[in-house]
Amino acid sequence: MRLTPSISRKPLLAALLLALPVLAHAQQADTLWHGKVHAPQYKETVFPPWQHGANNPALNKGLEFTVPEINDLPDFHGDLDHPKLVIFVAGNYYFAMAPLVQAFEKEHPEYKGHVFYETLPPGILLQQMKVGGTVTVGNMTWTVKPDVFAAGLKKIKTGIQDGVLTGKAIPYVTNDLTIMVPKGNPAHITGLADLGKPGVTLSMPNPAWEGVARQIEASLVKAGGDALEKTVYDTKVKNGETVLTHIHHRQTPLYLMQGVAQAGVTWKSEAIFQEQVGHAISNVPIPADQNTTAIYAAAVVKGAAHPQAGLMWAEFLRSPAALKIFEGYGFKPVSPSKPT
Question: Which InterPro entries match (predicted)?
Fold first, then answer.
């Protein structure tokens, strides 16, 4: 049967016009996402913040709006409205800051609800300090100047020499390295030498701003000479088997749980924390003769708004109450006989 134009062409034309946006969207999706568009398929608890608000010392939290992976500021803690103590601390022990701040506030109740702290890598924190404390995250910009800076002892001493920090360096604990792996260790990593094997994907701290990278490089040399260090931090970076992180203390466990990497060197304390919170993370110990120990220290920032509070915090970090908290994550007190 032959259809007349009035009942065949018009509906067809209308259908094509309606289909154009759909076709355009499909083409765009294929172009941008290679035809693999799908809803996020992950467990919300895998993404930080991992302590469910416990790491926020603010008293009045108002509307709580956190969407993991989308709207999330896990390295900024507290209330910026008239803080009495601002701490910039290298993110190596962000997980210990909640109990540390609580213990400090217990000894000094006048600071309760008035502590603000950041837990970014030390190189990034120093960059923020150099621009007057101003930082932009997404669409938000704010300015906060630290009273005290805590990081590796060498970086603290350099800050004092450069005039960024003032007073003396106050050392308090040490930390060792480990190889973080997914639970079950599917790549069968037994030591640092295995990180150089072809096909083993890695998540490693970026030497550009993470001081731990230099200590890891030293351990790689101890385990396999310059060749192993070059394989991990040069060859594998170029061929895509090593992913360099921006905030190693959070990204490495994320990459392991997401299947992006099979291993990554971190501080032992980080692996202990990940296991404590129930994440599918384990670690492979590094022998003492291949390991590298870091000494953590703190010092007051030059020109701080609250220098006395900054000094109180630095001194608190080596108090019995603070050391007990640190020891729960595998840190060790600085030995009086250890050269600083």
Answer: ModA/WtpA (IPR050682)
CB atoms within 10 A of CB 322: 23
45-171+297-333 with 177-285: one CATH topology? yes
Q: What is the pLDDT of residues 213-244, one digit of tens each?
A: 999 999 999 999 999 999 999 999 999 999 99
Is 14's pLDDT higher than 80? no
Residue 311: CA count within 13 A, CB half-sphere? 10
Q: Residue 304 CB: number of other CB atoms within 10 A?
A: 20
Q: In the 3-class helix/strand/coil scheme, how is 138-163 assigned residue by residue?
A: CCEEEECCCCEEEEEHHHHHHHHHCC
What pTM does this model have? Answer: 0.80
Q: Name the residue ranges covered by the structural domains of the chain.
A: 45-171+297-333, 177-285
Q: Residue 158 in contact with residue 211, Cβ under 8 Å?
A: no
Q: Which CATH superfamily is domain 177-285 in?
A: Periplasmic binding protein-like II (3.40.190.10)
In the DSSP assignment, the letter for residue 49 is P
Angle at 90 between CA 53 and CA 229, to 5 degrees: 125
Could you give phi then psi for residue 148, rounded to 5 degrees?
A: -145, 145
Model pLDDT, residue 51? 64
Please measure the distance between the N-terminal and C-terminal CA atoms of the chain and give it in whole angstroms.
Answer: 96
Residues 6+ apart with CB under 8 A from 327: 333
CB 115 within 8 A of CB 101: yes
The predicted structure's pLDDT at residue 162: 95
Q: Which CATH architecture has domain 45-171+297-333?
A: 3-Layer(aba) Sandwich (3.40)
What gap in Å lies between CA 118 and CA 198, rounded to an integer?
A: 37
Position 338 scores a pLDDT of 52
β-pair type (242-245, 202-205): parallel
- What's the pLDDT at 1? 38
DSSP string over 271-323: HHHHHHTT-SEEEEEPPTTT---EEEEEEEETT-SSHHHHHHHHHHTTSHHHH
